[in-house]
């Protein structure tokens, strides 16, 4: 398969690596575009085809991955309009807040499109990616899932849940990292050196997530295993709840979801 990635930033490059990992493409079959010619030399050295011309770059592609910022999307779609082949080409969008209706309005109602929301853990093959599709065939969907499966786990959702997925999945990385940071700072307060506290906190967070994934249990079930009557765990948990831990987390996720829903509208 020949693929074009519009926007060779962090997510675009992770997708390129995913295409290679899934054995969907060879490097020479992947064209990556960036606005600056000077930034393409490193990509050439890796064997990718490169371009600063979006319209030209998609002409021979079977799949077009759009990885630009929301405020850059209108310009990119205007550039692609003249070259897109609705019968042949599948579009995959990772543009935050942009509904597939935007793409079909600007490129054509028959456009086959998959919308994806991964997170930055794709770099370490641990992303959670949410996917939705319009007009895409089963073969299209299987191909896209195979790509994102190389970077972690996938789930198919209704498109009207994509802003919620952005908050819980993409923004969620930052939320959980902040809790790890807070735990490590607590560790320093109780006597650990900073580097030891961070290592302990990060591995403990990893272990907690792995328990839920591998045991397929609810968090409270695992919590019950480490809380005893009048013990130190329940005392710490209750103090965190008194200080608003769960409430703050929920409010933050809701706010991020509302903002994600309007990112493209504000561009």
Which features does this protein show?
11 helices, 50% helix, proline biosynthesis, pyrroline-5-carboxylate reductase activity, Rossmann fold, 2 domains, alpha/beta, 6-PGluconate_DH-like_C_sf, 267 residues, ProC C-terminal domain-like fold, 8 strands, single chain, 8-stranded mixed sheet
Overall tally of domains: 2
Q: Specify the CATH homologous superfamily of the largest domain.
A: NAD(P)-binding Rossmann-like Domain
Shape: elongated
User: What average pLDDT do the residues reach?
Assistant: 94
CATH topology group of the largest domain? Rossmann fold
* Level-2 CATH architecture of the largest domain: 3-Layer(aba) Sandwich
The CATH first-level class of the largest domain comes to: Alpha Beta
Q: Count the beta strands.
A: 8
Strand coverage percent:
5-15%
Q: Structural class of the secondary structure composition?
A: alpha/beta
Using only C-alpha atoms, the radius of gyration works out to 21 Å
The total of helices stands at 11
Listing every helix as H and every strand as E from the N terminus to the C terminus, the arrangement reads EHEHEHEHEHEEHEHHHHH
Strand neighbour order, sheet with most strands: 3-2-1-4-5-6-7-8
Distance between the termini: 33 Å
Characterize the largest beta sheet: strand count, sense, and whether it forms a barrel. 8 strands, mixed
The amount of helix comes to 40-55%
Low-confidence stretches: none
